[in-house]
Amino acid sequence: MGREIWLKQAGLFLIYLFIQVLFFRNLTFFEGNVMVFPYIAFLILLPFGAMNMSILIVGFCMGFVIDIFYDSIGIHTASCVFLAFTRTQIMKWTAPTGGYELSEVPTINQMGFGAFLVFVIPQIVLHHITLFMIEAGSMAFMPKAILRGVLSTLATLVIVLAIQYLFYGNVGRRRI
Amino acid sequence: MSQLFAIIFKYRVFLVFILLELVAAALIVNNNTYQRSVILSSSNTVVGGIYNTTSNIEQYFYLTEVNEDLLNENALLRKQIELYQVAGVSDSIDTKNTLSPLFYGMSDTIAYDFIPARVINNSVYRSANYITLNKGRKDGIVEGMGIMTKDGVVGQVKSVSNHFATCYSLLHRDMAVSSELKKNGALCTVTWNTEDPTRASANYLPLHLDINVGDTITTSGFNTVYPEGVMLGVVTEAEKTPSERFWLVTIDVSVDFSKLHHVYVSKSLFRTEKDSLESMDEQ
User: Fold this and answer.
1) What is the domain-level CATH number for residue A31?
2) Could you report the predicted ipTM of this complex, rounded to two decimals?
3) How many CB pairs under 8 A join A and B?
């Protein structure tokens, strides 16, 4: 059982990575103000039971590889590690009474639409704003960075929801 | 002591978080000192290979556009050969103002060689944009060479692997190109303002000069990166402010970075000689 989950997550890691660098990397709207980074859905949608330490390390690896493809060494790494750390806190705050089912992955079916949004949106916002703020590099561009972060959050959210409905759509056990 | 370990164990996740963030910060801060560590850039074999494969597929979608570009360039070069032949006969034509930069330096002896390359990865909308080329060390590219198209300056090579090269785009916050005002040769430095991929600014033009909208800015040729006279852009705004000692000049970048497909890497044949001579002067 344990090994199966690891293999599946490793497969998902590669799928999210390649879709991001081969397809979504080229997707920008409104003169570059809106970019999409659905690869972070991999980190957000790790099983509830994943250990905090392993999420941090997986986040670091994901950010690092993405950075190499984007030639932005360190920027995605920093924001992914930040996302991985905040995910633990957000899980604490949003947990339903009785806590999350540790063997499950977060899906709309399992959590309900509202709870899913509450769980996902803060993580995307934090990641994107961190990303654009580090990328801007100077205080003068901060308002613009925050604006880009918020707008891009909406775009990423749409993709993440689309993935949910496409691949986790059936109430049954259908998974990719 | 065991209490200390207990505390460390209790906060281990937070401590690892801090550690990983520090590693990331170190990577960001030292980005430029890693210039030679090709493994961390898009020119490493795996990433370069992936980009090369996808660009092999993508290039079919803009073949028409590339063909038209090449046709235009051919026509331009043909015109210049004609001019050269005329200039060879009568010595009366001012070749410097009519010839393409690709020919500069050829009048006496060839100072630059040009290596054609294809852009396999490019970005425009970040504050630090990079370009990946499908040519590398084996094709004679080394760090620091200039990149241009027939329209003008594109960037400069950052790091090279055997088959790929990662380059600073002109649209990179650290890029500065030694340039001049074409009409009178006044020196300036072109930098990107990180906002708009079609605009850059020309700095350090002293106030006593007369600058008008429509003036051309080209490379100065003072360093061995680009030949002299490669187009950078046309002045769209020139403003005098009392508090500054220089003009505030905005230029329209001549290269359309969103449609970058084929480029030339300019290789100075006298680079080592000139650089070693100039470093001798400093001593």
Assistant:
1) 1.10.1760
2) 0.83
3) 90
